[in-house]
Amino acid sequence: MENQSNKKIVIGVVALALLVLLVAWWLSRVSPADNNLAALGNLDGTASSTELASIKVGDQFPGSIIFVSDVRLPNGGWVIIKKDSSGRPGNIVGAGYFDKTVNVGEVAVPNTTEGEKYFALLYDDNGDERFTLSGDKPILNVQGEPIMTSFTITRILPEVKG
Question: For residue 82, what is the enclosing H or E element?
């Protein structure tokens, strides 16, 4: 009787191992275009830095640092801070290089003042990891507009818990 019980356990373990191997094999055969990330690629299924690039910058406390809460630059690139000029990005006041593996960070700027408005824009790097307006170009979204976000300098920031 004990021998029969041991056989059932061995058969169960072997069946489970085969099932795990089958699932692992199937997952290895699934191409990247078969998962949810394919929605971020081009129509031909290839990824593009334009569609994967994004930035989030919340309102900031006055000072000389802009905190970038989330940036996605699949090929690395620049977060450029521009001062507001009548509701549009104006003069550049800061630039920070972000490697493709870095998703948060800081950009140094001259001291900011309560009530000022700024924009954070994404720029590709031409390969030298030095920002120049002539060599580095804005990253555009699918509508052909620069990928950017706006924020305000304020002493009243929401409390973030957790």
Answer: strand 77-85
